[in-house]
Design brief:
Helix content is 41%, strand content 13%. Strands 3-2-1-4-5-6-7 form a seven-stranded parallel beta sheet, with helices on both faces. Helix 1 links the parallel strand 1 and strand 2. Helix 1 crosses helix 7, helix 3 packs parallel to helix 4 and helix 4 packs parallel to helix 5. The N and C termini lie far apart (45 Å).
Length: 270
Amino acid sequence: MSAAGRVALITGASQGIGRVVASELAASGFRVAAAARSIDRLHELEVQTGALAVPLDVTDPHGVADAVARVESELGPIDLLVNNAGLSGRSGTSWEVGHEEWWKVFEVNVLGSFLCSRAVMPGMVARGAGRIVNVSSNAAFFPVADDFAGVVSSAYMASKAAIVRFTEALAAEARPAGVRVFAISPGTVKTDMTATTFRDRWDDPDLWSPPELAAELIGFIASGALDALSGRYVHAATDDWRALADRSAEVLAHDSLALRLRPAHDPATP
């Protein structure tokens, strides 16, 4: 499916992964709306790529509704929503973090994804087409070793797991209407968010994933190639996602690429 003339809205687009995604989608032919709170950085991106700069706090329901209405008025119906805006939260044990600070991570990561999805869904459902990509993380899954506890905030890990489940639920709700929803991990990307968490491994080439890889995956999803796997979680750096289209029946049969508990009687369980 050609990207030419199609409309994409990317949140958290002023820096990091979101900025690269916005730039790559614009270069591929999408009419891009780049949303974030940092107005100055958005205008820089607007000059560089031609993207529409949309100042936005994703936790504000009225602001989200107004932003979506503006994008559709100026660019056209939204074909692709990328819920990328996110907070990592402050490192430290859960009892050392204030409740408002902890909950703010959920408000941005989860509520923000919900509000933006809710705002675009009626139009997508009416048109019988559209795709939503929610940016999650392997922090939703990985074991938390004692020496790593508190390094990545519990709010971040819990919120990213919530995004995976929200994605699966929304995908099931939207499937009859022809709308597809995906969760992805961009891998571990060098950003302001990861600078503190992984400062001891900043120069380790084996740790990092290029943000362009996430942009390529999102473009691949936007093409419709993975529509059969709506509701699933795809890792940009470790999954062979270009081959997943041919393996969709296998993935669904084994119920993989999803957040599941493994039964205690599973032979694979130690």
